UniProtKB/TrEMBL annotation:
Residues 1-22 form the signal peptide. Keywords: Cell membrane, Glycoprotein, Leucine-rich repeat, Membrane, Repeat, Signal, Transmembrane, Transmembrane helix. GO terms for cellular component: plasma membrane. The chain crosses the membrane at residues 961-980. Belongs to the RLP family. It comes from Setaria italica (Foxtail millet). This is Disease resistance R13L4/SHOC-2-like LRR domain-containing protein. It is found in: Cell membrane. Residues 291-445 form the Disease resistance R13L4/SHOC-2-like LRR domain. The keyword Repeat applies.
Length: 983
C-alpha cells in the first residue's frame, strides 16, 4: 500500500487533469496504487510507474507536482491533450529514478501525441540513463498540404539533447522540428548512442545525405526516416544491419540502386521506399520463408525479374505498387496472397479484375485510374472491405452501386472522381461508416434539403459518421434541420456548393463533438438566436471554422478575427458600412491585405490603412503582418482605440504627430517597418501609452526629455533604430518601469552613452560602449548568482483590457534568435561589438546560473578567468576577436552543457584541452590563435612546448565614472515586441 505522502501527491496531481466527462477519475478513499495507470513497489509502497496513455485526459500543462514522483521509472502521458502547452524548462532532472540506472527496470519517458509545443528543454537531456524516449508530435497540415511541427529541437540542438544518452535504446522524435543536416544528426547518433536499436525521426526537417557515420549503428532494428528532405545515394551498408526488421524511407529523394540483399534479411518485416522516384529497385527474387508483412515500392524505379517469387510472401499484409509493373504473371502471384489485407495501386491502366480474388482485403486504395470504360463488378467481390479510397480517377455517372455490398465499410473516399448524379440512398445501410469524403465531384440534386428522401441518409440515428466532406459539388437547396442530428460529427465540410436559405446557429449546438466546420462559398444566411449559456461549452472542441462568404449577412459583429490566413487584396468597404457602430475588436493580422476600400464618409482621402471608429467603442484593431504601404495623416478617428498594431508591414516616411490624438491608446506597435525621422515627442511626453514598440525602423535623433509625473509607460522597444544621446533621467517618473519588475534590457544597434544594470538579460551589443569592467559590478547581478529550479515565465505587461507578452531577440549559440516567453532560468550577458578593454573580472565566475556569455569583438586582454569553469549552466561562450593571452583554462572542461564555444582570433597559446565537451568543438572555435596546438587544429603540440606568459594590462581609472552610471541608474527599459492578446 502506498504511503500517505504518495497518496496526497497523486491526489494533487490528479486535480490537474480533466476528462471529457468533467471528472478526473480519482477515488479519494482508495489506495492510490490501485488507481488506473499507477504502479507501486510492493515493498516500499513508492510509486514506480505512471501510465496515463490514451485516457482522454486534458490539461493546461505539466504541473510541477509531477516532478515530485522521484521514484518513477516509467512515465507515460502519451495520447492525451495538454492544449499546446510548452514542456517545463526545468523539473525533469528531479525524476531521479529516470536518471539512476536500475538493472531490473527500463527507464522510459513517453510524452508523444499529447499536444505539446515549443522548444524541447535541455533538462530532458540530463536524464542520462533513459532507455526509451518518445517525444513524437502530431504534426498538422495546412490548406496547402504543408506540415507544421509543434515541437522544436533547435536550442538545445539534437546533438546537445542526445550527448548524454549512451544508455538509450529507443528514440522516437517523429514530427519534432530538428532541421539538421545529415552530417550533424548522423554523427551525433554514432558518437553518443552507438547501440541504439530503434530510431524514428519521421518528418523532422532532416536534410542532406545520410552521413557515412550512420554505418556504425549496426544494432539498429527499426529505422524510420520517412517524410524528410534526405537525398543522395542509398546507403549500401543498410544490408549489413543483420537485425533490421523495419526500414521506412518513404517520400525521400534517394537515388542509386537499392541492394537486393536487404530483401534477404531474415528479420525484415517492413520495407517502405515509396516516393523515391530516382531510386532503382531491382527485385531479382523474393526468398521463400520471407518475413515481409509490409512492402511499399510505389513511386520508385521498380523492376521485377521473377514475378512468381511474390507468391513467397505468405505473411504479407500490406502492398503498395505502381500498376505499370503489374503483369498478368505478377497479378496471378498476388491473387494467391491470402494474408493480404491492404493494397494500394497507382494506376495508368485498368487491369484490375485480379483484385477481386483478394477475399481478405480490408483496405483498398486506387489512384489515377480510368474506370469509365471498364466493368466494376470485381469491386463487389471484396466482402470484407472496411476502407475504400479511390482518388483522382475517372468514373462515368453515379457512385458504383457495388459499394453498397460492403456492410463492414468504415471509410469511403471518392475524392475527385468525376462522379455525377445523386448521393445513393443505400449509404444509409452502411451502419459502420465513420468517414465519408465525396468532395470535388459533380454530385447534384439536394441530398440535404427539407423533405428529400436523402435527408434520411445523413440524419439516420444508426449512422456514426465522424468526418463528412461533400465540398466542391453542385449540391443545392436548404440544409434540413434534421441533418444536424449527426451528433458523432467531428468534421463537416459543405463548402463550395449552392446551398441557400437561413441557418440558425443554435442548430450547431447539437454537434457536441464538432471540431472543424466549413460552410464557405455557399449562399447561406445566418440567424443568431439567443441560446441558453449552459449549452455553449458543447462547442468547445471547435477549432476550425470557415464561413468566408457568410460575413456579409452578419449585421452586428462586435469581434472579428480573420488572422493567420492568406487573404489578399482590398479590405472591402462594407466592413465599415456594416459594422462601424458595433465593431470593438478586429484582427486582420498575418494576411496579405494591401489596400482598403473606403469612401470619404469613413476615412478622408481614401488612405490605405483601415481606421474604423465610433465614439462609444473601445477599439482594438490589429493590422500587423500585412503589406500595407502608407499610414493616414489624420488619426482623429482613433479617439476610442486602446490597442493599435501596424507591425510588420511596408510602412515608411515620418510618423505624424496626430498619432497623439489617440488619447485612449495603451499599446502602439509599429515595429518592423521603415519609418524614419524623429519619434514624435508627444508619444513619451503626454499620452497614456503603456507599451511603445518601434523596433527595427529607421527613427533617428534624440528622445524627448519632458516626461510628466504620471507617466504610464511600462515597456519601450527602440531596438534597431538610430537613436542617439542619453536616456532621459525623467524616465524615473514612469513608475511602471521599476527596476524590481524589469527583466530585459535591449539597447542593441543604437548609440547609447548610458547603461543600466541588475537585469536577467543584458544585451548591450553593437553600441559604442568603452572602458573596463569593474569587478564589483558583477556582484550586483544577484539574479544570475542563484540556480533556478522553476520554469516561471516573466510576466507580460498588463493593461486595462489585456496583456502584452515580452519577446526578446538575442544572439544565442551563434544565432540571432527570438524568445517569445522569457523563463526565469534564461540569463544572458551580451556585450559584443563594443570597445571594452582590460581583463575580464574574476567575479564573473559568481554568475553560476548564466546561460549565455558573449564578449566577442571587444578589446579584452589578459588570461581567461579560471572562474568561468564554475559557471556550469553555460550553454554558449563567445570570447572571440579580443586580445586574450595565455593558456585555455583547464577548468573550462567542466562546462558539460556548453553547446557553442568560440575562442577564435585571440592570442592564446598551449595545448587545447581534450576532455568532456572540448572534444566536440570544430577547429573554427580556436582558429586565429597562432600559439594554440592540438586537436581539432592541424598543428601538433610538442611534448616540451610550454605556453608563453600573457602580458597583463592594468585597468583604466576611467571606468570608475562609467560604472557609476552602470549602478547609479534607478530605472531601466524593458523591451517587448510580440502581442499576446487577452482582450
Amino acid at each position: 500500500m502506498a504511503s500517505i505522502s504518495w497518496y496526497i501527491l497523486l491526489l494533487l496531481l490528479s486535480g490537474q487533469f480533466y476528462t471529457t466527462s468533467g471528472t478526473n477519475g480519482v477515488h479519494d478513499n482508495t489506495d492510490c496504487c490501485h488507481w488506473e495507470g499507477v504502479g507501486c513497489d510492493t515493498a516500499t509502497g513508492h510509486v514506480t510507474s505512471l501510465n496515463l496513455t490514451r485516457l482522454g485526459l486534458y490539461s493546461h500543462g505539466i504541473d510541477q507536482a509531477l516532478f515530485n514522483l522521484t521514484s518513477v521509472q516509467l512515465l507515460d502521458l502519451s495520447m492525451n491533450d495538454f492544449g499546446g502547452s510548452q514542456l517545463p524548462a526545468v523539473g525533469f532532472v528531479r525524476l531521479s529514478s529516470l536518471t539512476n540506472l536500475n538493472p531490473h527496470n527500463s527507464q522510459l519517458l513517453n510524452l508523444s501525441s499529447s499536444g505539446f509545443s515549443g522548444q524541447i528543454p535541455i533538462s530532458i537531456g540530463k536524464l542520462t540513463n533513459l532507455v526509451s524516449l518518445d517525444l513524437s508530435n502530431q504534426y498538422v497540415y495546412d490548406n496547402n498540404g504543408i506540415s507544421t511541427n509543434r515541437l522544436l529541437l533547435w536550442e538545445p540542438s539534437f546533438k546537445t539533447l542526445v550527448r548524454n544518452f549512451s544508455k538509450m535504446r529507443e528514440l522516437y522524435l517523429n514530427g519534432v522540428n530538428i532541421s539538421s543536416s545529415g552530417k550533424e544528426w548522423c554523427t551525433a547518433l554514432g558518437k553518443y548512442i552507438p547501440c541504439i536499436r530503434v530510431l524514428s525521426l519521421e518528418n523532422c526537417g532532416l536534410y542532406g545525405s545520410i552521413h557515412p557515420s550512420f554505418s556504425s549503428l549496426c544494432s539498429l532494428e527499426v529505422i524510420n526516416l520517412r517524410r524528410n528532405t534526405i537525398s543522395g545515394a542509398f546507403p549500401q551498408y543498410f544490408a549489413d544491419f543483420l537485425n533490421l526488421s523495419v526500414l521506412m524511407l518513404l517520400e525521400l529523394d534517394l537515388n542509386g540502386q537499392f541492394p537486393q540483399k536487404i530483401l534477404e534479411l531474415k528479420h525484415l518485416t517492413t520495407l517502405e521506399l515509396s516516393g523515391n522516384a530516382n531510386l532503382m529497385v531491382p527485385v531479382h527474387s523474393l526468398p521463400k520463408g520471407s518475413s515481409l508483412e509490409t512492402l511499399a515500392l510505389d513511386g520508385t524505379n521498380l523492376s521485377i525479374a521473377k514475378p512468381s517469387s511474390f507468391g513467397n510472401l505468405r505473411f504479407l499484409h500490406a502492398l503498395h505498387l505502381d500498376a505499370r509493373i503489374i503483369s498478368k504473371e505478377l497479378s496471378s502471384s498476388l491473387s494467391t496472397l491470402d494474408s493480404l489485407e491492404e493494397l494500394l495501386v497507382l494506376l495508368n491502366e485498368s487491369f484490375l479484375s485480379w483484385i477481386g480474388n483478394l477475399k481478405n482485403l480490408v483496405l483498398l486504395t486506387l489512384e489515377y485510374g480510368d474506370f469509365s470504360r471498364t466493368s466494376k463488378s470485381w469491386i463487389g467481390k471484396l466482402a470484407n472491405l472496411e476502407a475504400l479510397v479511390i482518388l483522382n480517377s475517372i468514373f462515368s455517372g453515379w457512385i458504383p452501386p457495388e459499394i453498397g455490398n460492403f456492410k463492414n465499410l468504415r471509410i469511403l473516399s471518392l475524392h475527385n472522381c468525376s462522379l455525377s448524379g445523386k448521393i445513393p440512398a443505400w449509404i444509409a445501410d452502411l451502419k459502420h461508416l465513420s468517414y465519408v469524403n465525396l468532395s470535388t465531384n459533380n454530385l447534384s440534386a439536394s441530398p440535404l434539403c427539407r423533405g428529400s428522401t436523402y435527408t434520411i441518409i445523413f440524419s439516420s440515428g444508426a449512422l456514426k459518421i465522424a468526418v463528412l466532406d461533400l465540398s466542391e459539388n453542385q449540391l443545392s437547396g436548404h440544409i434540413a434541420r434534421s441533418f444536424w442530428q449527426l451528433q458523432t460529427l467531428n468534421t463537416l465540410d459543405l463548402s463550395s456548393n449552392n446551398f441557400s436559405g437561413l441557418l440558425e446557429l443554435n442548430t450547431l449546438l447539437r454537434l457536441r463533438k464538432l471540431s472543424a466546420l466549413s460552410l464557405s462559398d455557399n449562399k447561406l444566411a445566418f440567424l443568431d438566436v439567443e441560446v441558453n449559456n449552459t449549452l455553449l461549452p458543447v462547442l468547445s472542441k471547435l477549432n476550425q471554422l470557415y464561413l468566408s462568404s457568410c460575413l456579409f449577412s452578419l449585421k452586428h459583429i462586435q469581434m472579428l478575427d480573420l488572422s493567420s490566413n492568406q487573404i489578399q487584396g482590398t479590405v472591402p468597404e462594407w466592413f465599415w458600412k456594416t459594422w462601424s457602430h458595433s465593431l470593438t475588436y478586429m484582427n486582420l493580422s498575418h494576411n496579405n491585405f494591401s489596400s482598403l476600400e473606403l469612401s470619404s464618409h469613413f476615412l478622408p482621402n481614401k488612405q490605405k490603412i483601415p481606421v474604423p471608429g465610433h465614439p462609444i467603442n473601445r477599439q482594438l484593431p490589429d493590422y500587423s503582418n500585412n503589406i500595407f504601404s502608407s499610414i493616414p495623416e489624420n488619426f482623429s478617428y482613433l479617439t476610442q482605440t486602446v490597442y493599435l498594431s501596424f507591425a510588420r508591414n511596408k510602412l515608411s516616411g515620418q510618423l505624424p504627430d496626430t498619432i497623439c490624438k489617440a488619447r485612449m491608446l495603451e499599446v502602439l506597435d509599429l515595429s518592423y517597418n521603415n519609418f524614419s525621422g524623429q519619434i514624435p515627442p508627444c508619444l513619451i511626453e503626454d499620452v497614456h501609452l503603456g507599451i511603445l514598440n518601434l523596433r527595427d525602423n529607421s527613427f533617428e535623433g534624440k528622445l524627448s526629455f519632458v516626461i510628466k509625473d504620471q507617466c504610464t509607460l511600462q515597456t519601450i522597444d527602440l531596438n534597431g533604430n538610430k537613436i542617439e544621446g542619453t536616456m532621459p533621467e525623467l524616465l524615473s517618473n514612469c513608475s511602471e518601469l521599476e527596476l524590481s519588475s524589469l527583466h530585459v534590457l535591449v539597447l542593441r544597434s543604437n548609440h547609447w552613452s548610458h547603461i543600466f544594470t541588475s537585469l536577467q538579460i543584458i544585451d548591450l551589443a553593437s553600441n559604442n560602449l568603452s572602458g573596463v569592467l569593474c569587478p564589483k559590478w558583477f556582484d550586483g547581478l544577484t539574479v544570475m548568482m542563484t540556480k533556478h529550479d522553476t520554469d516561471k515565465v516573466v510576466r507580460g505587461e498588463h493593461l486595462s483590457r489585456g496583456s502584452y507578452q515580452n519577446i526578446v531577440l538575442i544572439t544565442y549559440k551563434g544565432m540571432y534568435m527570438a524568445f517569445e516567453k522569457i523563463c526565469t532560468t534564461l540569463t544572458v550577458i551580451d556585450f559584443s561589438d563594443n570597445c571594452f578593454r582590460g581583463r575580464i573580472p574574476d567575479t564573473i565566475g559568481k554568475l553560476v546560473s548564466l546561460h549565455v556569455l558573449n564578449l566577442a569583438h571587444n578589446g579584452f586582454d589578459g588570461k581567461i578567468p579560471n572562474q568561468i569553469g564554475g559557471m556550469t549552466d553555460l550553454e554558449s561562450l563567445d570570447l572571440s576577436s579580443n586580445q586574450h593571452s595565455g593558456e585555455i583554462p583547464q577548468e573550462l572542461t567542466n562546462l558539460t552543457f556548453l553547446g557553442t564555444l568560440n575562442l577564435s582570433s585571440n592570442q592564446l597559446v598551449g595545448r587545447i584541452p581534450e576532455s568532456h565537451q572540448f572534444g566536440t568543438f570544430q577547429s573554427t572555435s580556436f582558429e586565429g590563435n597562432e600559439g594554440l596546438c592540438g586537436a581539432p587544429l592541424p598543428k601538433q603540440c610538442k611534448s616540451s612546448e610550454a605556453p608563453s606568459e600573457p602580458n597583463e594590462s592594468k585597468p583604466s581609472k576611467q571606468i570608475d565614472f562609467i560604472l557609476y552610471l552602470f549602478s547609479g541608474a534607478g530605472f531601466g527599459i524593458g523591451f517587448a515586441a510580440a502581442v499576446l492578446t487577452k482582450w
